[in-house]
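help with these tokens:
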Amino acid sequence: MSSLNSRDWDVTRKTVGSLSMWIGTAALFAPRWIAGSLGVRPDAAQGDVALPLLVRLGAARNIAMGAALLVTPAPQARRTTEVTLLLTALDAAAVWTSRATGDVRTRSAVLSGIVLALSGYGAARWHRR
């Protein structure tokens, strides 16, 4: 990896890791607000008793993956980015399934698609040899 690519990777890794930790922390402490902001139906966001637990589980995963990205040096980060991309794809599939049943708004499905596309682009870019 050239020094420019290494420097680019370092900035990307720190940005994605920090963002993941901030979003995870917000979801950990305000799960209903985050769920509503991401397009979960208002009645489900406010009334579903299981929702806070499920959002907090996802938040804990976001925090863990963000921390892993922050502490993993560039040469060893390949596995971390692969796992992150896999989890992002699974999240998107869950959102798209929920969209098909009418449980989330279109904006949530679109946002999931954008996040997945950006994650895929980033993984492909940093894994090229």
In short: The helical segments are 3-29, 31-37, 42-47, 51-71, 77-100, 106-127. DSSP finds six helices and no strands in the chain. The mean pLDDT is 81. Residues 74-128 form one domain.
